[in-house]
């Protein structure tokens, strides 16, 4: 089935998922949206993240996508249910695949999760893990400085190591044997984190696990594209395309092409009557 | 003149300016808008910052404000000209007052500026300083990690000190004798920064200087309110009011009341025909 797969994230982080998707699903065309005008999502409220996620999905639906990947831990944690309810195509987020992998990997049933404040505050990973392994102990730790550190390019060095040690200390004290990298920025810190934790702690890259689940789901729904790739992947962003291409190539591990900026406010104004965004009565968390 | 003063910022940082305004203009009512749904501005493009600033101003104009304070270094650096061109009320930003104070304070004419990537990239402080002191040497240093550190509440401690030392090293090597805190978050780091630099380097708090300039301008334009304060200050935000009140009280040094969340997307859709936002032909920097 030649229709493309839609992927969205608040910014560049989701490109770590794109990288994995390209690897294991080389014949699928991807349409990516990075909401760089409103990045980050991880410090914002649940209500707002749900609104943003619906708007991002509406943008991608224009391309007749057959499948939606929420390549953002924050949006997967706070908005996956509402997306599944409102969209008529299959939706996969990064939380469940990461939780599944952690449950398969742990030996002592003590699992740590690191992520943004919104992701950890939502307890999404904890809920997913406990569904699969009710006697697991799950320890979440919000790490709001890690995204800015990655975007500054400080992937190693004293500041990053000290920050990581401070964030990871409570997880190490509780002797977790598995830690989920619950943010698509964190795989870039994986070597430093592994070095700090030592070889006995397993790290789970949710993005990598998600790509695997996307492939399985496409196969079971008979949505896999059997011909060659129908067109190049397209990337859309709500702020500067140049800046996204520069930072994004670090995440993708190769130069980024086909990046276009769109005026997202204009898009929303034009689509203010879209049923997808209507009757949005989720209670505001305040 | 009883009409209120409008103040906007991308988030809570502008409250450091509010604190100073309340101190020296106790009879003026302030209407504050913090665009917390789209914070931060400092990592975003010039074109987008200009658009956001016009939208923020449009929101405040509803309250019949007599004066606009751009309490955000990033917006002052990238959008002050367009705001002055398009609004029919006086507009003051934080850059010129900070530059003025630095020029008065320096003895060796070597001035450092720290701020967000957008503020430093715009060279706004350099241009303002050179207008006043053409033979000054100005050294700008973007410090993208400082805002997240302040918001995490890590105002001192090893991580913050190491980060500051790394950022400040090039300024210290060049022997600047004055450094402008070119971001409204940075006054919370002032004691730590002063401790690292030692007593021979003067720190300029742009917010404090701006409040002084606002008072002078109001007086010269005969816009000062001579009666008592006509009403309590009001605070509007585009994301969670609770979260803003919590973090904001740290910036203001007292509990924050009268905070209301507004749906900014809805506001923009309703006002999509506003002339202020039209014919916005600034070239996109890409």
UniProtKB/TrEMBL annotation, chains A, B:
NCBIfam families per record: glut_race (TIGR00067)
Where is substrate annotated to bind? 9-10, 41-42, 73-74, 184-185
What Gene Ontology molecular-function terms does this entry list? Answer: glutamate racemase activity
Q: Which SUPFAM superfamilies match?
A: Aspartate/glutamate racemase (SSF53681)
Tree of life domain: Bacteria
Gene Ontology biological process terms, A to Z: cell wall organization; peptidoglycan biosynthetic process; regulation of cell shape
Upper lineage is: Bacteria, Pseudomonadati, Calditrichota, Calditrichia, Calditrichales
Q: Cell membrane: is it a keyword of this entry?
A: no
Family, as annotated: Belongs to the aspartate/glutamate racemases family.
- Gene3D superfamilies under this entry? 3.40.50.1860
Q: Which reaction does it catalyse?
A: L-glutamate = D-glutamate
Name of the protein described by the UniProt record: Glutamate racemase
Keywords from the named record? Cell shape, Cell wall biogenesis/degradation, Isomerase, Peptidoglycan synthesis
- The source organism is Caldithrix abyssi DSM 13497
**Role:** Provides the (R)-glutamate required for cell wall biosynthesis.
Keyword DNA-binding present in the record's keywords: the answer is no
Q: Which gene encodes it?
A: murI
Q: Name its pathway.
A: Cell wall biogenesis; peptidoglycan biosynthesis
The active site consists of 72 (proton donor/acceptor), 183 (proton donor/acceptor)
Q: What class of enzyme is it?
A: isomerase
- EC number(s) stated in the UniProt entry for this protein: 5.1.1.3
């Amino acid at each position: 089935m030649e229709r493309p797969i839609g992927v969205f994230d608040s910014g560049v982080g989701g490109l770590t998922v794109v990288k994995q998707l390209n690897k294991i699903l080389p014949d699928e065309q991807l349409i990516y949206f990075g909401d760089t005008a409103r990045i980050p999502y991880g410090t914002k409220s649940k209500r707002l993240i749900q609104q943003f996620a619906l708007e991002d999905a509406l943008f991608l639906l224009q391309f007749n996508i057959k499948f939606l990947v929420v390549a953002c831990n924050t949006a997967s944690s706070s908005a996956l249910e509402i997306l599944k309810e409102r969209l008529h195509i299959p939706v996969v987020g990064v939380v469940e695949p990461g939780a599944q992998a952690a449950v398969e990997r742990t030996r002592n049933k003590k699992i740590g999760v690191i992520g943004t404040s919104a992701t950890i505050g939502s307890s999404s990973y904890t809920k997913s893990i406990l569904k699969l392994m009710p006697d697991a102990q799950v320890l979440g730790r919000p790490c709001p400085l890690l995204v800015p550190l990655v975007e500054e390019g400080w992937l190693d060095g004293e500041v990053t190591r000290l920050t990581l040690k401070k964030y990871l200390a409570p997880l190490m004290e509780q002797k977790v044997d598995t830690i989920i990298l619950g943010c698509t920025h964190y795989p870039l810190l994986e070597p430093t984190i592994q070095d700090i934790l030592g070889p006995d702690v397993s790290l789970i890259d949710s993005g990598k696990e998600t790509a695997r689940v996307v492939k399985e789901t496409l196969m079971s729904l008979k949505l896999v594209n059997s011909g060659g790739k129908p067109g190049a992947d397209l990337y859309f962003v709500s702020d500067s395309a140049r800046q996204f291409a520069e930072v994004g190539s670090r995440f993708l591990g190769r130069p980024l092409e086909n990046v276009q900026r769109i005026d997202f406010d204009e898009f929303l104004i034009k689509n203010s009557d879209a049923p997808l965004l209507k009757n949005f009565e989720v209670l505001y968390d305040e």
